[in-house]
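Customer escalation, tier 2.

The customer says the design service returned an amino acid string that "doesn't look like it belongs to this structure." They asked us to rerun it and document both sides in this ticket. The original structure tokens are below, unchanged.
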């Protein structure tokens, strides 16, 4: 979709990075995975990078695009990769490092990072006033590189909530070109979430009183 929105200049290159969780990979082979990474604070991430000409992305079938993404990602989803990444970070301390796509931006064509949020336990976060009905850890990070983050819908009906931080032209194309797939996150949708949570808590309270 991002490539098609840039079809006016098919000589440009579209770039994408995918955030890979390293906690699960570093815990491979461990009998107690929770305790293995329990002492680690913060993210353990790798962000593999891929790029293709916009013209190819438009003309080739979606299956070809999926294979290209799988190809540049496959080396970053192993335990060995993250062990090597730890060594690399230690060897370059305290020099700061940024991802390749963030440094280059979208000067040569569309560029964005895809971050998975399906396992982020939003419903388990509680600061003392109850778990949230809805939440996200997406934030605009200041550069020209786009950011796409998907999370499961609090409706628990199989839907995704997709957060998109992209140039206006690309967002407009997504909203109009694939309106049958992506629906705007409206107040009505959030209102339904609030009432679903309220009814669930009410039923839970009634159940407790009957015991």
């Amino acid at each position: 979709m991002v490539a098609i929105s840039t079809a006016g200049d098919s000589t440009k290159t579209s770039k994408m990075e995918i955030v890979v969780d390293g906690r699960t990979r570093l815990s491979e082979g461990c009998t107690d995975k929770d305790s293995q990474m329990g002492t680690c604070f913060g993210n353990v991430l790798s962000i593999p990078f891929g790029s293709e000409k916009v013209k190819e992305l438009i003309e080739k079938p979606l299956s070809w695009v999926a294979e290209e993404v799988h190809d540049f990602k496959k080396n970053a989803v192993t335990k060995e990769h993250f062990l090597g990444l730890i060594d690399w970070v230690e060897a370059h301390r305290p020099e700061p490092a940024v991802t390749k796509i963030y440094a280059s931006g979208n000067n040569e064509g569309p560029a964005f990072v895809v971050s998975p949020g399906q396992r982020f336990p939003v419903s388990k976060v509680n600061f003392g006033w109850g778990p949230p009905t809805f939440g996200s850890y997406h934030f605009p990070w200041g550069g020209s590189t786009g950011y796409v983050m998907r999370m499961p819908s609090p409706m628990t009906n199989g839907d995704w909530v997709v957060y998109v931080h992209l140039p206006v032209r690309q967002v407009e194309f997504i909203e109009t070109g694939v309106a049958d797939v992506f629906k705007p996150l409206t107040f009505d949708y959030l209102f339904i979430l609030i009432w679903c949570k309220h009814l669930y808590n009410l039923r839970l309270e009634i159940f407790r009183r009957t015991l």
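Tier 2 assessment: The sequence is consistent with the input. The two ends are 53 Å apart (CA to CA). The mean pLDDT is 78. Sent an explanation to the customer and offered a walkthrough call.
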